[in-house]
């Protein structure tokens, strides 16, 4: 079996894309119907020599921005981008991940935290780790976010949903602001020396590109309290006040709790949770 799967993937997709697919003229004799190396290199903003080294396996350590540029130029789908990421990890990333010196992000919560979540019912509330993985949540949170698809994948991840799931832009009318706040809250730009964070950053850089990387570079400060708009498939627009609490310093877990910011949202949340009117009172915001 070849050990140059990254290079073979790039070459196969280059040869499968026609000039017309990317808005280039298709004249002249071609050995294959696909793009020439010079054409793909120009589209991706890299040199022909470097692209040749990647395809031939003589360079197996491209930067993530280079891979993202190639993915954009090749018009890769979301699934194809994930396959490209897997080939990259096999060639380069896997070796870097083996020697991680930092502890993996927690994937569970303490029993006392679960008991606290039970006490917060029927309010939507969740606990996340430093990557934004959803570790635990109330039934109220599942009723709120299940219909928008946030919990479809395990582990559910706030950033993967927000940036890589097309349903997120419909669910959040103020998507741009929510995206800024999510990245600021998790401090990804400051924590990329953590290999686990760096791996997530690489994944989203390749899968999403500029809407993610531009925010990663922009200076920002986290808002641990505020108001968030959510468009629910059954109940329409909800205005939710939220509070964010740090659970401990050594595992970087955060608890986020939501309450209705107005009476209309309070009534809609009561219907979602099946509770009697007034179970969740508006707190303003």
UniProtKB/TrEMBL annotation:
Report which superkingdom the organism of origin falls in.
Bacteria
Q: Which SUPFAM superfamilies would you find in this protein's record?
A: lambda repressor-like DNA-binding domains
Enumerate the InterPro entries for this protein.
Answer: Cro/C1-type_HTH, Lambda_DNA-bd_dom_sf, MLTR_LBD
Give the matching SMART domains. HTH_XRE
Q: Which residues form the HTH cro/C1-type domain?
A: 34-81
Q: Which Pfam families match?
A: HTH_31 (PF13560), MLTR_LBD (PF17765)
Q: Which CDD domains does the record match to this protein?
A: HTH_XRE
What name does UniProt use for this protein? Answer: XRE family transcriptional regulator
